[in-house]
Amino acid sequence: MQPAQPPPFDGKAFVRTLTSAPGVYRHFDAAGELLYVGKAGNLRKRVSSYFLKPRMEPRIAAMVAQIARVEITVTRTEGEALLLESQLIKSLKPRYNILLRDDKSYPYIYLSSGEDYPRLAFHRGAKNLPGRYFGPYPSTYAVRESLSLMQKLFKVRQCEDSYFRNRTRPCLQYQIGRCSAPCVGLISVEDYRNDVRHAEMFLEGRSNAVIDELAEAMEQASKALQFERAAKLRDQVAALRQLQAQHHVQGASADMDVIACRIEAGMACVSVLFFRNGISLGTREFFPRLPLDAEPADVLTQFIAQYYLDRPVPRELILGEALADRAILAELLSQHAGRAVELKSSVRGDRAQFLQMAERNAQASLTARLASRQTLGTRFDDLQKLLGLAAPPRRIECFDISHTMGELTVASCVVFGPEGPEKSHYRRFNIAGITPGDDYAAMHQALTRRFRKVADGEGASPDVLLIDGGGGQVAQALDVLKELGVTGIEVVGVAKGPGRRAGEETLVLARIEAGSPGRELHPGSSSPALHLVAAVRDEAHRFAISGHRKRREKARERSVLEDVPGVGARRRSALLKAFGGMQGVEGAGVEELMQVKGIDRGLAERIYASLHG
């Protein structure tokens, strides 16, 4: 006998049990999958709209037909409900909600503290280092440009601490006038801290105060007949005034974001113009996941809730749509920021022009994305035909290997879907325990680590697995998949053509059941499918090379002296300064090493033994 089917969900009966308090509701289907998260000022009234309305929009009707269970959470206020709704959408990613897909943390400018000569640096990720963080900035380019300006204006160092501690003479940045060479004592601690203070003031938006201080110092230097110092200060003031004229935006408040949304063909684009301290930091476009029939106002409400509730909020948000929840959002953002935050949609003058600019950016980016998606869809369809698949692939993975003469091998895995690269699913594998330069062993190890999770029932499995290489690399992939018992994956090797010319690649096809590489295809340079395969392969190649370079640079920054017991940062720095670098330390004998302060005979012998095997 078949088990009895559970009775259908009685929404009308469920609604009668609900409270009229504010809260959050969650719709689930029969399999327990979360369909939708919503907030309500009155739970009974809001939830009843799903089950008591005679006619509904197609999107809502399709969702309601799947509802098998509803859960609620009562909150004290509607603002708390909005906050909880945003958190649940971001963490649970329900199918029918608007979801902001923004996987990258935002970049900051970091100013270190607790040292005589602090440094300015690019920073992304957890803010757990002592010091100050300025930002967030909308893009890496905005941070790099700001750091370049800091070098020109205030000459605060930006080098890594390991590099700074081991200098014995000024570097190129000093030679081109972008650093004051604190590493070798060419500037006093007091003067350097003054430069750091001015850089802080500038990043806080107090550039006029910096100019006033520098102008006063110039006058005093001139009166004291210190004409060389006065000339330097004059040039610094002139550079600051020129910078203000170039970057200050007329009509922009100190802190303001201008946000516009455009929707077309089932896709939404949110464009944000960032202004801080009256200076434009640039523009960024977002493409949230969009259920059918959503309106721009709905998208903006969800965007603001998901984006700003875990980031610093400007004092003013200029919006392209009037929001029904504007007052609740303003109150919630004000509590989050600890000061008043205004949301405005009816604006005039300069703000209206900024809003028009954001709307044009949103429309242009949306048009470009739609055209790109259409092209990508054509390529996926052509790949289906080329490989003889039952349906266009939903997930393509590609593996590549990178090393320098076998040193510090890194394998990359990139993922593409129907909408393009899925960067949150990219992975790198540091390869160890193989013969240097053995690409087959490296590929075998990377694939084993990746697909062991699939064999254990964790993570998604690709429809097509691309391997950068010919039959040998494909054979490695087949061996791994057979060992792990993973099936249903089309394996394709991408071998370079004659003369390594683009468009002449050979595709080596293989099926797991056959156990070996099969037929070869030569699609030609006009094939949309080959364009897709080449783009995915090139992205895997780029990702592998960048990972290998990072690993190599990190390894080369490490000093052999760090492995010697008893040699800390101070003794290491003293040794390098005493002998002019690592080559001098390696050439020194035990007696010479003992001449360095803090190095006794026992430690000198350990250093010598470590450096000479």
UniProtKB/TrEMBL annotation:
GO terms for cellular component: cytoplasm; excinuclease repair complex. One of its GO terms (biological process) is SOS response. It is found in: Cytoplasm. InterPro entries: GIY-YIG_endonuc, GIY-YIG_endonuc_sf, GIY-YIG_UvrC_Cho, Hlx-hairpin-Hlx_DNA-bd_motif, RuvA_2-like, UVR_dom, UVR_dom_sf, UvrABC_protein_C. One of its GO terms (molecular function) is excinuclease ABC activity. It comes from the Bacteria. Residues 258-481 form the UvrC family homology region profile domain. Residues 20-98 form the GIY-YIG domain. This is UvrABC system protein C. It comes from Rhodanobacter spathiphylli B39. The gene is uvrC.
